[in-house]
Amino acid sequence: MSLAPRAVLVHRRTEYEELLARHGTHGQAAFFLAARGRSADEVRERHERTRRALAAVAAAVPLTWRQTRVERADLDRFLFGPEDVVVVVGQDGLVANTAKYLAGQPVVGIDADPGRNAGVLVRHRPDDARRLLPHAAGVGVTADELTMVAAATDDGQRLLALNEIYVGPPGHQTARYVLDAPAGGGGDGGAPEAQASSGVLAGTGTGATGWLRSLWQQRSSGLALPGPADPRLAWFVREAWPSPTTGTSRVEGLIGPGQGLRVTVESDRLVAFGDGVESDALDLTWGQTVRLTVADTRLRLVG
After folding, report:
1. What is the pLDDT of residue 118?
2. Residues of the chain under the 50 pLDDT cut
3. Cα 81 to Cα 233: distance, rounded to the nearest angstrom
4. pLDDT score of 189
5. What is the pLDDT of residue 1?
6. Longest C-alpha distance within the chain, in Å?
7. How far apart are CA 163 and CA 212, in angstroms?
8. pTM of the predicted structure, to 2 decimals
9. Which residues contact 291 (CB under 8 A, 6 or more apart)?
10. What is the rounded distance in angstroms from the CA atom of residue 174 to the CA atom of residue 277?
11. Taking Cα atoms as reference points, which of 65, 69, 50, 58 lies closest to residue 130?
């Protein structure tokens, strides 16, 4: 017999909770903020809005369902099941943090603080949850299938991200590597090129509203950035440096299905991490290769 759906409510600690964890009491937190020209009342008010949103979503879960909660810091230890409906209550970035741990489960994004979030991924208000949850669990539910990016190393490590994956130095040093780009799509193909730069970024159409777009605008690129559901990635090299042994001829391009951008490390240590989460990074050493591709997994975001 199949299991009843389980609503998994994903949330993160609020700024107010983090302040209390650090300072112990509201009074101490208020003193700390006042010394910096900020109001503890404002921070607590946002905290209360987030708590109310989470409570409203929990109350909207059908009585025949199971439900549980998981905090962002525990996502890497949480086991999602195929029958789960994932409800992200928070900011757009929390959806991206959650996406890499999923395998096709429907995701409902709830904006916990309307007006402060862009609402690109958390598209709904808490009051919408009572209608959306049964819909999300239904057969043939309509959802936006958002492209994700994958990084795979030659020793079997793997990383997924919804927005982008960065490969480069963990600090401010120069990254040295050999870049092998796919032919076409602006990457020019051809022979691999040794490069020295601030790192390589490959991302999706969802990520093309953030870090990717800033690089695209900075260099006045003519590259056509993909859309969120487009099965392509855009990639850019950050601040490539020309020298007698390193080139700058291949600094941007597109990656289509079945293609990959291959980076072979020529530094003592580089890292690869997704969606800005540096604490969940792959360590790359001299001679190691990482390949960036369109992921087989997509994020199913309920509209």
Report:
1. 82
2. 1
3. 28
4. 59
5. 47
6. 68
7. 9
8. 0.88
9. 151, 152, 153, 260, 261, 262, 263
10. 20
11. 58
